[in-house]
Amino acid sequence: MEQQQKSEYLDDLVNLESMFIEIGREDGLRDGVNSGKLEGYILGCEKGYEISQEIGFYNGVAEMWLKLIVDKGWNMPKKSMNERIMKELISLKEKISLFPKENQQNIEFIELLDKIRSKYKVCTSLLGVINSQKFKKVTSVEDINYVAI
């Protein structure tokens, strides 16, 4: 009996290292999940802000050009060109209005974002304007109003 008890203690000591490895693994997985959720939340907020800033820029450009064409009577050499530009700008505004303003669990909005970017490129090409955007880096709350060039 005493020999069997010694054998069990010896087995427990041998398994002690593997037991600590398993406990450490479980702790590491739990901590990794928790820190991953926080990191994902922060990254999601940053990317969401960047995308909304980009969509807002496209919307502002489309509104400005539509106002110039309609209100100010800006005309291209060919009347058909004016109509095409207006059609493309209105189409861009419609695509922007479809873009979700709340958190999305699916990735379908990425396809819509690609379509908006493509439509914006078509519009700038038809208008003959430079197809670039630059935003002032936001470093504080006072810098929230970005500058588009």
Quick structural gist:
With 149 residues, the protein is an all-alpha fold.
Averaging pLDDT over every residue, what do you get?
Answer: 79
Show unreliable segments: 144-149
Percentage of β-strand residues:
under 5%
What sequence of helices (H) and strands (E) makes up the elements?
A: HHH
Count of DSSP H/I helices? 3
Helical fraction equals over 70%
Give the structural class. mainly alpha
What characteristic shape results from the CA principal axes? Answer: rod-shaped
**How widely separated are the two ends?**
87 Å
Please count the beta strands (DSSP E, at least 2 residues each).
Answer: 0
Largest sheet: none
Query: In angstroms, what is the radius of gyration?
Result: 29 Å
State the domain count.
Answer: 1
Organism: Glomus cerebriforme
Family: Belongs to the LTO1 family.
InterPro entries: Essential_protein_Yae1_N, LTO1_adapter
Pfam family, one: Yae1_N
